[in-house]
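testing teh design pipeline on a random one, pls ignore if ur not involved
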């Protein structure tokens, strides 16, 4: 875990993130591949407490390099505690991070998934429970190995239905269910 000036208890941030991962992502099967990676302890978490964008972007590159250098790490979560709280700012950062991944030569090897406490899918009502498929306790980027995704999807029947299934499941659970878990 890396940070410039820690201002928050990192242990609590990690515990809260794993609780969300266990109770929402895995228990509700929003990512059918997360359970095995979690059980095998192959998730790397990096808590970012910097606030300047250039430091955050440098850390994206550093985390990508770390992931590719260590086969034992299957996936990485970059958690932002002191920045990117505004969802629009976060989306701008996500665009920059995706461009950086391409320009740094990670395209085709790694990809980003995005999670934010105020995640809103374009075109969906703001109070729709479907947003909780991508809502997390903190703004974060999830760095995934593309070859692992491809391999996992080969053994999965109709992977194109995962997002639709997740949205319908989130709606059936209702926003109150997620609010309780994320509070």
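output:
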């Amino acid at each position: 875990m890396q940070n410039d000036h820690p201002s928050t208890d990192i242990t609590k941030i990690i515990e809260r993130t794993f609780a969300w991962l266990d109770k929402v992502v895995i228990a509700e099967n929003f990512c059918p591949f997360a359970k095995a990676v979690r059980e095998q302890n192959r998730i790397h978490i990096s808590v970012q407490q910097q606030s300047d964008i250039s430091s955050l972007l440098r850390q994206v590159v550093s985390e990508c390099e770390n992931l590719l250098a260590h086969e034992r790490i299957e996936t990485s979560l970059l958690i932002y505690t002191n920045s990117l709280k505004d969802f629009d700012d976060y989306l701008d950062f996500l665009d920059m991070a995706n461009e950086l991944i391409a320009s740094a030569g990670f395209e085709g090897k790694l990809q980003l998934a995005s999670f934010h406490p105020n995640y809103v899918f374009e075109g969906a009502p703001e109070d729709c429970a479907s947003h909780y498929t991508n809502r997390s306790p903190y703004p974060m980027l999830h760095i995934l190995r593309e070859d692992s995704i491809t391999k996992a999807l080969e053994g999965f029947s109709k992977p194109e239905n995962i997002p639709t299934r997740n949205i319908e499941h989130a709606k059936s659970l209702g926003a109150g269910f997620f609010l309780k878990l994320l509070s």
